[in-house]
Specification:
The protein is globular. Helix 3 runs antiparallel to helix 4. The chain contains four helices and no strands. Helix content is 86%, strand content 0%.
Length: 124
């Protein structure tokens, strides 16, 4: 079965936007670690930084996906946010061999990622 070139092209664009999201995540988490080391931040401030990292990374990825797709931008942003969360969850399970956290924290993180991606797509 052959897949149309358009679908492959769309998948590549989404993967590029996801890669940018994860690179940005790495940079923001590195900055958070530096701030934690330098200023001895408490747990609450670190949690806020991590939440902002999720939102900003998904926003940037959704923005790029929306720019590259040019139609139904917010849906591409939603897809990017969902894929960002799904990959992050799979990597977490692979590394920890279990799910740490509650259903509420998973749902909250999923919603933040999806909304961040959607907003990025809408702004594209």
């Amino acid at each position: 079965m052959k897949y149309p070139i358009a679908y492959i092209s769309q998948a590549v664009r989404v993967l590029k936007a996801l890669l940018v999201s994860y690179v940005l995540t790495g940079l923001l988490l590195l900055a958070t670690a530096g701030l934690l080391y330098r200023f001895r931040l408490d747990e609450g401030k670190v949690r806020i930084a991590i939440i902002l990292t999720y939102i900003l990374s998904c926003f940037a990825g959704g923005f790029l996906a929306g720019k590259m797709m040019k139609s139904r931008k917010f849906l591409w942003g939603v897809l990017l946010g969902f894929l960002y969360f799904a990959i992050m969850l799979l990597v977490s399970v692979a590394v920890n061999r279990q799910l740490d956290g509650t259903a509420v924290s998973f749902a909250t993180t999923l919603i933040l990622c999806i909304l961040g991606g959607m907003m990025g797509g809408m702004c594209a």
